[in-house]
Each structure stands twice: as C-alpha cells, then as structure tokens.
Amino acid sequence: MDRKFVFVLGATLAACVVYGNPAVSSITGGSSFGIFYGGSTGDVVGFRFTANADFFVTDLGVHIDTDGLQSSHMVGIWRDSDQALMASALVDPGTATTLGDWMYQSISPVQLSSGASYTAGAMYTATDSDSYVSNPTTVVTDPWITLTASVYPSAGSLGFVYPSLTNAGARGRHGPNFIVAAVPEPTTLIALGLGGMALARRRRAKR
Predict the structure, then answer these.
(1) Residue 124, SS3 per DSSP
(2) Diameter of the chain by CA atoms?
(3) Phi, psi (rounded to 5 degrees) for 54
(4) Are the beta carbons of 77 and 86 closer than 8 angstroms?
(5) How far apart are CA 111 and CA 109, in angstroms?
(6) How far is CA 94 from the centre of its chain?
(7) Which of 175, 169, 144, 136 is nearest to 43 (CA)?
(8) What is the pLDDT of residue 122?
(9) Which residues are the signal sequence here (predicted)?
(10) Who's near 77: CB < 8 A, 6+ residues apart?
(11) DSSP 96
C-alpha cells in the first residue's frame, strides 16, 4: 500500500476526532485543597464516571485555580474493571492550551466504551502551589458521561497510581478533565477509505 496514502488516511481519521467538548464544562462552589494526604510524593484525586456512549478522549486537562496553573501535573484515565491506565499526559502550563477553567494537553486519541466505568485523576504534591475543587455545588458535564463518585488514593505519597477509594454519590474532586470527541460513523470511514484508494490509483497512473 502506498505510504503517502496510509499517512493521508491516518491523518484524516485523526482529524475526525480532534474537535470535541470538555467532559466537565463548569463547576461552582465546593472546597479547594492543595493535596489529599500531604505527602511530598503526591496523591491522585479525581472522579469516577460511566461512559454513556462510545467516544474518543483527545486531550487531558487539569483545573486552573485563582492564580493560574503554577506547576505541571500528571493526569490519567483508568478503566475501573482492571485498573488499566487508558491514557495519560503531563499537563505543562508552558505548553498546554487553556479552555474555560482547565488547561489541556493533546494526546493520541483513546477510545472509551459505552457502559464502562472509568476514573479520571490528577496528581498533586505538597509543593506544586495548585489546588483542586472537592464536591462542588454544581457540575455541568457532557451528556456522554455520568459522574458516579469522588476518588482518592488508599494512602499518601503513592505517586501517580490508580486512586482506589471512593465517596459514592459525591460530585467529584475536580482537578482532572478531558476532551471527548465522537467516534466516526462506519460510513464515514468507508468513504475515507474509498477516497484514499482512488487517490492512490491516480498517483500510480501518473507514474
């Protein structure tokens, strides 16, 4: 298969999932905390959610507090059934993109599955000068997700690991966030494939 065709098709498919919406678009109220346990190695906090549709995650983000984002933070999404890390990124205030009250780092798109439970978490340390918002009064989410619990780690100073403990029914610890984008319809993929093959045939005919 023509290498240029493969590149063009891959780039086109990637473009299909670049533009999306924040999983959490706004929060109000709640309490701000700099770290859960206070250990120097850091703790991961966040929220558990159910995916209400198949979708891609294209960016991972972290909350900006009143004085901006002062430090870089690891952010991840884990699948709850086996605690597998599905996506992760270091959100750097020097390179991340601001959207609303979060800064985002782009990642290679990762697909999440409808009906599955996942955890979004961000790591905070005792020295990073940033804070997350715990149990806000209101949370506005994309309809593709439903928040189910706040999450926190089983002990302090565990670093960037799956936060296994929950407060069921709480409205989340909002450090982490992510951008959701639609999975392309099969007919769209077929059309892209046919277009790419036609392009490859035309290129071969000109040789």
Answers:
(1) strand
(2) 66
(3) -75, 130
(4) yes
(5) 7
(6) 19
(7) 175
(8) 98
(9) none
(10) 57, 60, 85, 86, 87, 88, 110, 112, 118, 119, 120, 121, 178
(11) P
Choose among 53, 81, 45, 61: nearest CA to 165: 45
pLDDT at 16 over 70: no
Contact yes or no for 40/125 (Cβ under 8 A):
yes
Single-letter residue type at 30: G
Residue 159, CA atoms < 13 Å, CB-side half-sphere: 0
Predicted TM-score (pTM) of the model is: 0.82
Cβ atoms of 86 and 119 closer than 8 Å:
no
* pLDDT tens profile 22-80: 999 999 999 999 999 988 789 999 999 999 999 999 999 999 998 899 999 999 999 99
Length of the chain in terms of residues written: 207
Statement: residue 18 has pLDDT above 50:
no
Q: Are 51 and 144 in contact (CB under 8 A)?
A: yes
Residue written as token pair 């799956």:
162
Cβ atoms < 10 Å from Cβ of 17: 20
Whole-number Å distance between alpha carbons of 143 and 164: 25
- Taking each continuous run of H as one helix and of E as one strand, the counts in the chain are 2, 16
Compare 153 and 1 and report the one with higher pLDDT: 153
Lowest mean pLDDT segment, chosen from 5-9, 85-89, 105-109, 153-157: 5-9
